[in-house]
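At your convenience, could you comment on the folded chain following this short note?
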Amino acid sequence: MSGGVDSAVAAARAVADGHDVTGVHLALSSNPQTFRSGARGCCTLEDSRDARRAADVIGIPFYVWDMAERFREDVVDDFVAEYAAGRTPNPCLRCNEKIKFAAVLDRAVALGFDAVVTGHHARLADGVLRRSVDLGKDQSYVLAVLNAAQLSRAVFPLGDSTKDEVRAEAARRDLAVADKPDSHDICFIADGDTQGFLNQRLGSKTGDIVDAASGEVLGSHSGAHQFTIGQRHGLGIGRPAADGKPRYVLSITPVDNTVKVGPREALDVHVVHADRPVWLDGVEREGPFECQVQLRAHGEVHDATVTSDGDTITARLHSPAKGVAAGQALVVYQPDPEGDIVLASATIARTEALAPADV
């Protein structure tokens, strides 16, 4: 129970379905005051109190589990290391994989519980994970790292409801979090300043900002970790391109601390290569097969032809995507009238832009 409305209603529905439910809040920092306080964060002292009050109203036991060390190692340290390597990670995805459905699930099973229930907006039935009916709140993308064994012990009660319906139900149940705003920020970055957070841990190192086409040095920066693919603002170049159009980050090379920039059309990606694949039902599809892929949380969906060799998944997009960053997840969906089915996920390693004749 995070302290938000979704997990509170998920717990209430689990009780209503006849389950023996215990509420658990995760303490993810050894010093909670360093995490964001106020309504827009998560994992704060305020959230712990909100979760406890919700458990009291629902009428279930409530505990706080200390996962701070595991969270730091598996989520925070991974986040910093990925940026240092020139990639753009998704910490929520890693938290689901390493904390909520690994560390928490392992402890729950050891204590005799059958499953972990969360307030994620996704549908799960008979081991098949589908998008939520509320596509605007769908969280199947960040759950696509779960394997068949983890899904067999997961319950997502909210997948058949919209967020408005969840809030209305919370109000009917007299849960004080009914109107609590959603959390949008990275919970372990107290002030929302991701660049400042990374600077503190990775330090400053001057490097060049280079025009990708001409090789001309356009400016300098104090650390390649401050950038992500597709970024437009904050480049600090100080002079416009010859055609007057904006420049975007096209590539990041940590080895020589170089950031290359260019026009928006140079962000086009036609082929995405991803490694460490997870097939949610445990059955690999070698392909090629037609499907849809999503390349970032809440990003657009692309029709694609997918192949797999066991170690990698390759998606050839039917229309180009822009600004695809290594470190994000490639999630494979099978379109279905009853709700798109999540087939697999993998971590984006590299991308290709094809010549017009090869598209």
